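Give me structure tokens for this 635-residue protein.
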Amino acid sequence: MAKRFFLFGFLFAVSANLSAQGDTIIRRSIDEVVVTANRVRTSRNNVPMTVSVIGRGEIEESSESALLPVLSGRVPGMFVTRRGVAGFGVGSSGAGSMTLRGVGVGNELLVLIDGHPQYMGIMGHHMADAYVASDVERVEVIRGPASILYGSNAMGGVINIITRRQETEGWSVNGRVMYGSYNTQKYQAGAGWKGGRFSGLVSVNHDRTDGHRRNPFDGDRKNARFHITNGYAKLGYRLSDRFQAWGDASLASFETQSPGPASDPLFGNVAHILRGVTSATLENTFEKSSGAFKVFYNFGDHKIDDGYSNGGTPSLFHFRSDDHNYGITWYQAFRFFEGNLLTAGLDCKNFGGRARDAFKDNTTPDRIWADTSLYELAGYLVMQQTLFDKLTLNAGIRLENSEQFGSEWIPQAGLAFRPFRHTVLKASVSKGFRSPNIQDLYYLAGWAGHNPDLKPERMNNVELSAGQSLADGRLSAELTWFTSKGSSLIVADWSNGYPPTKYNSGAFKNSGVEFSLNWNVLKNLQFHGNCSFLHMDHIIEYSPEQQLYLSASYRWKKWGASASYHYVKDLHNNVEDLESSVSYGLLDARLSCRPLTWLEVFVKGENLTGRAYQTRFDYPMPGATVFGGISVSRK
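Here you go.
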């Protein structure tokens, strides 16, 4: 570890020296404008948090329909579990769990859609299959606590999915068709229009696959099928030069079948899921002030059969739930004088729903697990001040009030220092927290397992980072060190048998280093690399101790080629034996040709070396897979 620190320090010392000698360097990726870190458009140079941005170009080049696989590897320190060629699924055998710097297994990462929270109202977790890549303009990831702005579940970080808008005048259309291994089919179509004060965008996606797993106890038939249909629409209207209104809605309906563990395959493990998100936003922009008022509503309907193993007995019931998560968000940023930015905001949300076992005989009354909701109300104030065009100070406080646990104060402070024109040094101290969800509090109401007296989980984080730009902005790098300490984690006590009793007694301490590099080697040749090193005092599942991600892309006339390599070392994916670990490397590649300006033909391969690996224990992933397709796009 000492050698790695020395190497990174040497690279930055050389970069800083070269930067001090140059006068014409233009900052690009490090100076990118982001909104997630401060609610309003702000340069990454002026916020103390480390933020990763995945742009539309990277999303399109992946040819992925699901969003989370695009993030895995491209965000330093982030890891996403998978179980098959397509589809994450839900329930006890679902995948799609995310960790960032060793945090997230207990839903401590918050997924946002255009700045408002999106998670299952009862269980509190995100819904991986509902996030569609074609609807996304970019993704901004705060790698560390962001509870001061976004409240609960932002304990370990925030993934803000910023949806697309129709920006150009007139019509635009796009579409894609893909076919590949295991009868995997992907279809996408979209259209947009902008004229005068009005703009609109709609898209539809449909994915399906037979899956790569076969059940030897069921005539060797495939039992890992998945299909999903997503619809998305966004409308905007400019009321005046100062005000603009937006409304959007998305709906995802999917069916997923889990084959279960390879050592004990399942029969009949099928889930039917319906998820919806809708919101309305009024934005304002004045000379010295800007902000927005948003109303959002998320809902879901789940019907799940957990299945049975060979020789087992089919269940007499299926799990049903309907959940909600709705509220309002308001924030306003004021620029009272030069270099000053004061952001004030209010958040109010209600989450919950009804969970039950519905018996298949249609005569036995449902067994109710939970039927309740909770509200949370919060206000926050964040002050940012830039001095001498060199130093930006940032500090703020949030007061969160919950119907269940009362009040929680969340402070944060940090700075960004620019000793040279192209060098940024950052430091921050922040607090994150996660409220107990309905499952933690009441899901086993009437049994010994529930605990309505649970308090929030908490985490304190300290981080330092340095960013450097060189060669007219074509080369940029960032190095980050962090240490995080969690307390009052909600854990299950199985000493008295089933159901387990939950307590606030868990703790962890993680520390690590992250490094990323972007290099535009030539006009048509780009390179990206990042690596992360994580040390955990107590091993946390699905949190690799080391990761390396390398990618390169090249375009020549009508042709384009890209390749990426993702190496994962010491992944602890067996929850029953956390001392064990697995390591693997995955090679992906894509080749495309654009015979016409509006038409692209492509072929892509994943895990081209056919590496045997598992992200979730006893759920083997497919070997080499190949897909081909065409994309059309006209503006």
